[in-house]
Backbone:
């Protein structure tokens, strides 16, 4: 593991990386306010794959045994944007709202799930090569991407299903 820091030769001059991040609006947002800068939506598909790979390294999960990958965030907007960018790469991501413990409270979070061989295959091929973390690289290498390897665990929106079942029962 390595760490990279930026430094200025002359402290009176602005830090280029910091000013770049400020220009994109990446500074000062809380976890629930995070979003992908508008400029990212002009990237090529290869550049989007790199962006998503690096984002997945930080807040993504890859579970080959359960045949899914998901990206977690506290920002609904960011989750929708990740879902949109995945779609640009031909990958369908399902959005799931979750509740999680945080500092003695319950918070709302969002997960963008990638499931099924038809979505995992392009995920592994396009985003997988950009993962850096050794554990995630190993997991992506072990991800089954064919339809004939057994059952897949998928995400079902519980509230929607409950409402449908309740309505059917009432009828």
Residues:
């Amino acid at each position: 593991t390595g760490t990279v820091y930026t430094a200025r030769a002359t402290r009176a001059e602005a830090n280029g990386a910091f000013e770049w991040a400020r220009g994109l609006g990446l500074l000062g947002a809380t976890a629930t306010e995070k979003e992908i800068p508008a400029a990212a939506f002009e990237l090529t598909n290869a550049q989007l794959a790199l962006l998503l790979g690096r984002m997945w390294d930080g807040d993504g999960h890859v579970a080959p045994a359960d045949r899914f990958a998901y990206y977690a965030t506290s920002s609904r907007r960011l989750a929708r944007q990740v879902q949109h960018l995945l779609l640009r790469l031909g990958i369908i991501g399902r959005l799931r709202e979750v509740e999680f413990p945080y500092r003695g409270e319950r918070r709302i979070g969002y997960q963008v799930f990638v499931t099924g061989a038809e979505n995992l295959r392009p995920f592994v091929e396009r985003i997988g090569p950009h993962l850096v973390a050794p554990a995630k690289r190993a997991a992506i290498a072990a991800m089954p991407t064919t339809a004939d390897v057994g059952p897949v665990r998928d995400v079902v929106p519980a509230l929607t299903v409950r409402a449908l079942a309740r309505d059917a029962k009432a009828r």
